[in-house]
Amino acid sequence: MSEIITTEGVPLKVSLKRAERINKIRALVLVLPLTLFIIITFVIPIIAMLTRSIDDKQINTVLPKTFEIYKQWDRKQLPSEEMYATIFNEIMTADKRAIGKASTRMNYSKSGWKSLIKKSKRKFKKIKEGPYKEKMIAIDKKWGKIEYWKAIGEMVDPYTFGYFLNAVDLKYDSNKKIVQQPEKRRIYNYTWYKTLKISVLVTLFCLILGYPISYLLATLPLKYSNLLMIFVLLPFWTSLLVRTVSWIIILMRKGVFNSILVWAGIIADENRMQLIYNETGTLIAMTQILLPFMVLPLYSVMKTIPPSYMRAALNLGAHPMHAFYRIYMPQTVPGISAGGLLVFVLAIGYFITPELVGGADGQLIGHWIAYHLKSTLNWGLCAALGTILLVVMLTLYWAYNKIVGIENIKLG
Predict the structure, then answer these.
(1) Where do the H-state alpha helices sit in 349-378?
(2) Contacts of 185 (CB under 8 A, 6+ apart)
(3) For position 408, what pLDDT does the model report?
(4) How many domains are there within the chain?
(5) Which helix (H) or strand (E) holds 13?
(6) Residues 237 and 383 in one domain
(7) Is residue 404, in this structure, part of any structural domain at all?
(8) Mean pLDDT on 217-241
(9) How far apart are CA 200 and CA 326, in angstroms?
(10) Separation of alpha carbons 59 and 359, rounded Å
């Protein structure tokens, strides 16, 4: 059979391949801007976060010779004159900005290193020659305390899992063995537990409150459901900060809610409830703020369920509650899945509302990420906390997919 030729004199097979190649290039050009946007704003920051969470080179590059000698130290008594001389010379020759970053990193392992380096660099100018050990100890007694030297052992390697250990209340000792943090510094495990607990409770409360609202939205006549929908969407038209401050005014001891209870004679004036700056305030405020994210997916799924299903079940003699449980509710599972996952993801990483209404008792893990990012500048620990949060979310997502199936999530 002779080959089919197009009007342009090109074989049809070649012409089709050329057209297919042009379509692929055109599709690639259309997708490329979005791909670059995702890579720049999402992929690269995550990779940078993962890298920073294990990167410990900022001190190794400043005190490399000191670290080499440190590896030979027995850690039973103060270091030799050689180590004192080495760290003296490296501090004096180091760039001011580099030694500042290094001393900040050293301060994470042992509080006091930053002030010691800053003071010593200024006073080392008076030391013209060795021996250095006695002269350095005379400048500051911390140079003669072995615990400060042992703290350097946590920073010997250029890459470390120390930040991750710190994020779960563990640390390396001077021999690179994993030990628990001192009791007064064990704060993260409890915060992780509290973050997960509050996220689950907020998701549960949003489901309990949002399910009947969504049902009314889907079943009421249009003029009533539209009015109710306006009330559901109204929070989106109000600043998050305004809503959070409003809850502070409502829930404070001298606030609206307690005053109404006192006015109604339900509680005495001296028995006003503490509903703010604690875990209770965090739960109430977060539930109200995240409720629309549960209602909208549920409503969009319920709206697609034909009312005839329930009528048929009732006509066949089923009890209304039994018909609801066996017929209606299973069809809303995709909406429950979508709303629950959406609310939980938002709740576990929430920051502004817990920070303003939670006080010391209601703060979530986002508080510590922000604290170290702005106050201590411990970006390695920030990155480790963020990475753990990401891993927890991916693990829960994987477990959810295995149990329920991610394909069952629908938005209507």
Answers:
(1) 352-357, 365-371
(2) 169
(3) 62
(4) 3
(5) helix 12-38
(6) yes
(7) yes
(8) 87
(9) 25
(10) 36
Distance (Å, whole) CA 284 – CA 274: 13
| In-domain check, residue 3 | no
Residue 231 has pLDDT above 60, yes or no: yes
Q: How many residues does the chain have?
A: 412
Query: pLDDT tens, 175-211?
Result: 778 889 888 888 899 999 999 999 999 999 999 999 9
Tell me, yes or no, whether 138 and 198 share the same domain.
no
Question: How far apart, in whole angstroms, are the C-alpha atoms of residue 82 and residue 66?
Answer: 9
How many Å apart are CA 196 and CA 345, to the nearest integer? 10
Encoded tokens for 205: 């409360």
CATH code of 361's domain: 1.10.3720.10
pLDDT digits (tens, 9 = 90+) for 302-311: 888 888 888 8
Alpha-carbon distance of 203 to 230, in angstroms, equals: 22
Same domain, 179 and 248: no
The mean predicted confidence, pLDDT, of the chain is 86
- Is 296 found in the same domain as 253? yes
Q: Taking residues 325-353, what's their average pLDDT?
A: 87
pLDDT given at position 55: 85
> Rounded to whole angstroms, how far apart are CA atoms 165 and 181?
9
> Is 41 within the bounds of a domain?
yes
Same domain, 208 and 119: no
CA atoms within 13 A on the CB side of 26: 6
Rg (CA), the chain: 31
Q: Is the pLDDT assigned to residue 220 strictly greater than 80?
A: yes
Judged by DSSP in three states, 410 sits in coil
Residue 80 has pLDDT above 70, yes or no: yes
pLDDT of residue 186: 87
User: Is 70 in the same domain as 152?
Assistant: yes
pLDDT at res. 409? 61
35 and 108 co-located in one domain: no
Which residue, of 185, 212, 237, is where some domain finishes? 185
Find the domain containing 234 and state its range. Answer: 188-408
The residue out of 139, 164, 185 marking a domain boundary is: 185
Same domain, 96 and 26: no
Going by C-beta distance under 8 Å and a sequence separation of 6 or more, which residues neighbour residue 389? 348, 349, 365
